[in-house]
Amino acid sequence: MRVLVVEDEALLSEQLASALGEAGYAVDCAANGERADFLGQTERYDAVVLDIGLPRIDGLTVLRRWRDAGVAVPVLMLTARGSWSEKVQGIDGGADDYVAKPFRIEEVLARLRALIRRSSGQITPDLRCGGLVLDPRVARVTIDGIAVKLTSHEFRVLSYLMHQQGRVVSQAELTEHIYAQSADRDSNTVEVFIARLRRKLGGSYIETVRGLGYRVEAVP
Ligand code: CA
């Protein structure tokens, strides 16, 4: 899963990016509204953390532009403490949730997980396919209760497929959701990650749909 962090305070942006990275997400950062507007309209994110007070273009305007352009990504707004009007404007402007500053990073992570879960139609906090369980709260994968050690890219591939359970996901779509913008993208590497995942997971959790992509069956 891939997340965009829009925050002009460098330290806060770094803290968010590093916490999200540790939690298994590919992360892009934007430090002003103009850059955020551009990235949101050209890249594919699974969620966005959007500060309201931003240089050049404020967060509410960025959000309005995205929604006007049909960008449906879940957005978590960062609002000033005690500013009820920012919260109302944010929600009315198309934000899905908000966190007031100052906040605990853990709360931002929990709200993001919930947004991503809901937007992909998942109900439970952990994602299951038979004995295979992926828990986004601790970025952990188990099979029949036994932990499976994955690299961060393998985890992102599996996490994306499991959030899209039952749907065929193309190699191009996977590529868009597992790499940060700065990363060297090569869609062939997706095949490599899938092959490694199959080796580590065993069984037939990841199905290849010829000419279309990959699918994790929607098995309870
Ligand atoms: Ca700010």
Features:
binds calcium ion, 220 residues, Arc Repressor Mutant, subunit A, Rossmann fold, five-stranded parallel β-sheet, globular, alpha/beta, 8 helices, 41% helix
Provide structural commentary.
This protein is of the alpha/beta class and 220 residues long. It folds into two domains: 2-119, Response regulator (Rossmann fold, 3-Layer(aba) Sandwich); 127-216, Orthogonal Bundle (Arc Repressor Mutant, subunit A), CATH 1.10.10.10. Helix content is 41%, strand content 21%. The chain has a five-stranded parallel sheet with strand order 2-1-3-4-5, with helices on both faces. It has a four-stranded antiparallel sheet with strand order 6-7-8-9, covered by helices on one side. A two-stranded antiparallel ribbon has the order 10-11. A hairpin with a 2-residue loop joins strand 8 and strand 9 (146-148). It binds calcium ion (CA). The site of calcium ion has 5 residues, from loops.
| Total strands | 11
* End-to-end CA span: 22 Å
Run of helices and strands:
EHEHEHEHEHEEEEHHHEE
What CATH calls the topology of the largest domain is: Rossmann fold
> Hey, roughly how much beta strand do the residues contain?
15-25%
Strand order of the largest sheet: 2-1-3-4-5
Estimate the helix proportion, in percent. 40-55%
CATH homologous superfamily name of the largest domain?
A: Response regulator
Describe the main β-sheet briefly.
Answer: 5 strands, parallel
The number of helical segments is 8
Specify the CATH architecture of the largest domain: 3-Layer(aba) Sandwich
Low-confidence stretches: none
Distinct compounds present: calcium ion
How many individual domains? 2
